[in-house]
């Protein structure tokens, strides 16, 4: 796993952004930056690519199994009180 993360980080630094891994990282960061929480409903869509219809359709069975087992993430997230702290962390990371 460490090696995969290392390769993904290297690829991102080299500007290789048009793949599932890079889109997953970007979706993950965007989700936390915007709401302070990970929105697991959006991450698979962002990872596959919004216009990758076959890829998105391949996620349907996984979504159905999650739903049937009660493992689906909440649709509406609670407000995070310390959002200023999250913004401060992202500002510091940007430097």
Summarize the structure.
The protein has 95 residues and is mostly helical. It has helices at residues 2-13, 20-35, 43-48, 53-58, 60-68, 83-94.
What would you say this structure looks like, in words?
- The two termini are 27 Å apart.
- The mean pLDDT is 88.
- It is built from six helices and no strands.
- Helices cover 64% and strands 0% of the residues.
- The protein is flat.
- The protein has one domain.
- It has 95 residues and is mostly helical.
**Largest sheet data:** none
Secondary-structure-based class equals mainly alpha
Overall mean pLDDT stands at 88
**Could you give the count of β-strands?**
0
What structural keywords apply?
95 residues, mainly alpha, 0% strand, flat
Draw up the topology in text.
Layout: H1 2-13, H2 20-35, H3 43-48, H4 53-58, H5 60-68, H6 83-94
């Amino acid at each position: 796993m460490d090696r995969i993360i290392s390769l993904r980080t290297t690829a991102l630094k080299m500007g290789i952004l048009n793949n599932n891994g890079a889109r997953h990282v970007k979706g993950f960061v965007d989700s936390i930056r915007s709401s302070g929480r990970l929105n697991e409903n959006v991450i698979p869509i962002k990872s596959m690519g919004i216009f990758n219809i076959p890829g998105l359709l391949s996620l349907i069975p996984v979504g159905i199994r999650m739903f049937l087992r009660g493992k689906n993430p909440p649709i509406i997230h609670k407000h995070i009180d310390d959002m200023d702290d999250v913004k401060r962390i992202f500002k510091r990371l940007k430097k």
